Amino acid sequence: MGTSITFKRPDGKDASGYLANAARGNAPGVVVIQEWWGLSDQIRGLCDRFALAGFDALAPDLYKGKVVPYHDTDAAGKEMNSLDFMDATTQTVRGASQYLSRNGAKVGLTGFCLGGAVTIIGAVYVPELAAGVVFYGIPPEQAAKPADVKIPLQAHFANKDDWCTPELVNGFEKAMKDAGKSLELFRYDAEHAFVNEQRQAVHDREAAELAWGRATEFFKKHLG
C-alpha cells in the first residue's frame, strides 16, 4: 500500500522510511517507530492501517535497512544498544515529523518497545508534535524526564512485561501526574509486544484491538 521514501533530517542528512498516505489529501500525520527488530513488515502494516484510518503514516528506518529476525533477541539487543537514541529522535524522527507537517498538518508520534521509549523522548525534544501514543517502552530519566514532556500522551502497557515492568510503569505514571502532565494510561493483562500479530507467542488480539481503537481515537481528537 505504501512506498519507500527518502526525507531530510534537520542536519541536512538523508534518512529513509516507509510512507503510507491516507485517501484524503489534507490528512494529519503519524510518525510510527519500530520495535527493536527494525523496520519490519509488521510496522509497515501498521502504517498501512493508519492510512486506512485517515492518517498519513511514516515509519523512519532507524536501523538503516537492517531487520533482525524475531528469534534473534541477541542481535536485536545489539542493534538497539548501538542506536544513538538522541540522534535518532532529534534528527531522524524530527525530520519525519517535519516531512509530514510540511502542508500545515498536525503530527503525532507513536512507537512500540524501543519505539515507545523514542516516543517519550520525542514528546520532550520534537517541537513539531501535537500528541504521542506510547506502547510498552519507557526511556531512562536522563534521556527524557516526564516533567519535560510537552504534548498530551496516551500509553499502553502490559502487566506481564519483564522489560517495561509494571513497577517502571507505575513510576512513570506517578512522575507524569506529579508534574501535572496530560496522560491517559492503560494496562492490559498481556505480554510485552502484544500488538505484534506476527509473533504468535505474545500477540493478544483482544488487547491489541482495544489499544488500536484507543490510539486512533486519541490521534483523531488531538490531530484532527
Automatic annotation (TrEMBL):
SUPFAM superfamilies: alpha/beta-Hydrolases (SSF53474). The keyword Hydrolase applies. It comes from Bradyrhizobium campsiandrae. This is Dienelactone hydrolase family protein. Keywords: Hydrolase. InterPro entries: AB_hydrolase_fold, Dienelactn_hydro, Dienelactone_hydrolase-like. GO terms for molecular function: hydrolase activity. Transmembrane segments: none annotated. The keyword Hydrolase applies. Residues 17-222 form the Dienelactone hydrolase domain.
